[in-house]
Write a structure and sequence with these properties.
Elements lengths: L1 H17 L10 H16 L2 E12 L2 H14 L5 E6 L2 E9 L2 H11 L7 E8 L7
Antiparallel strand pairs: 1-3, 1-4, 2-3
């Protein structure tokens, strides 16, 4: 019984391996046009929903400024932006496509910036940090 299964499996694998099967895809014109429209819209969009790490939220501008200076001293090559959403000042760093991408860096900076959290943000495509 095992021998018969082995022979059948060998024949199937041999036939599949030796066949020169070709697949022809016939695409409707409307589908092609929709795909072209989607691709051109994607290129036109300059921002995506991504993630940044918010290292501080405080109503104290001096504290925000000192946190920015500390971060820039420690990580001079990482993008930093701040925003005033009354009454709070928020400092955000990095630009990541997924939350998973930022986790290694966030673990590192949590040692010095214990309030760091991931936040959703509109990010320019050219800002993304590639991993």
């Amino acid at each position: 019984m095992k021998t018969l299964r082995y022979i059948i499996a060998l024949i199937v694998i041999t036939v599949a391996y030796n066949s020169d099967a070709q697949v022809n895809v016939v695409e409707d014109d409307q589908v092609s046009q929709m795909l072209r429209n989607y691709q051109s819209n994607e290129r036109a969009e300059s921002t995506i929903k991504g993630y940044r790490i918010q290292i501080i939220t405080t109503p104290d501008r001096r504290k925000m400024e000192s946190t920015k200076a500390k971060f820039r001293g420690m990580y001079p090559n990482v993008d930093l932006e701040w925003e005033h959403v009354s009454p709070y000042y928020q400092v955000r760093v990095g630009a990541y496509e997924t939350k998973m991408d930022l986790m290694d860096f966030m673990i590192d900076i949590k040692k010095d910036f214990r309030d760091a959290i991931p936040v959703v943000s509109d990010i320019e495509k050219n800002e993304l940090i590639a991993y």
